[in-house]
Amino acid sequence: MIAVEPLAGMETQVGGGHVVFGGGIAGLTIARELLKQGCHVTVVEKGATVGGLARTFERDGFRFDIGGHRFHSNNPSVVQWLKDLLGADLLTVPRFSHIYLNQQFVDYPIQFPGALTIFSPLKAIQMVSSYLMAKLTERQRRDVSFEDWVIKRYGRALYEVFFQPYTEKVWGIPGDRLSAAWASQRIGIPSMWRAVRHAIFPPQKAPATAISQFYLSP
């Protein structure tokens, strides 16, 4: 059997045992829980090493992470499971995230209207105008793809400057081929109007992506 990426972390039962497709975090977690229950488990991974998007590889004396993936969860039982697994090896690290945009480092998650200051006045006006036009012209756009979801809410100019290049670089998948549901679950950036309101009246609950710390194991 050869595991393919869309099946990563999936589990099936074969001949009295269990086969887990994909040796990423999800797949290894499933395999571990099945082993704890006394089951026979085979993990099938198409790559040379396990770890999925959380793995680190070495090349020419340097170590590289596959992506900027850090563990955090609002589910206490999930966090406790991780603490029980790693014990004293689990560290809590403050989060400071930036992206390199327009030859400058910008806080991430990106914040409005402050993020517009890294652009020329003309470009900033263009993005604001695109945002306002989207409120009038894109209201009926169906939420089919990631591209649809973002353009409908933020306008095409901001999509092409930030959302499209960032997402396609990280995930390697065109924005029009990613699901709109993926966008709604991961994008915690408020609209410009909400950003201004939140600056005056800070919300009691931060968006899901706006965490202040994450967990790390050395």
Question: Notable features of this structure?
Answer:
single chain; 218 residues; alpha+beta; 3-stranded mixed beta sheet; 7 helices
Individual helix count: 7
Count of distinct strands: 9
| Bulk shape | elongated
How would you classify the helix and strand content by structural class?
Answer: alpha+beta
Query: pLDDT average, as an integer?
Result: 79
Q: Compute the CA-based radius of gyration.
A: 21 Å
Approximately how much beta-strand content do the residues carry? 15-25%
Largest sheet: 3 strands, mixed
Assembly level: single chain
The number of domains: 2
**Relative helix content:** 25-40%
Task: Give the strand line-up of the largest sheet.
Answer: 1-2-3
Could you give the distance between the termini? 33 Å
User: Unreliable runs, pLDDT <50, ≥5 residues?
Assistant: 1-8
SSE succession: EEHEEEHEEEHHHHHE
Structure description:
By secondary structure, the protein is of the alpha+beta class. It folds into 2 domains: 5-69, no CATH class; 98-216, no CATH class. 37% of the residues lie in helices and 17% in strands. It has helices spanning 25-36, 76-86, 121-137, 146-154, 156-171, 180-186, 192-200; strands spanning 10-14, 17-21, 41-44, 56-59, 62-65, 91-94, 98-101, 104-107, 213-216. The model is unreliable at 1-8 (pLDDT under 50).
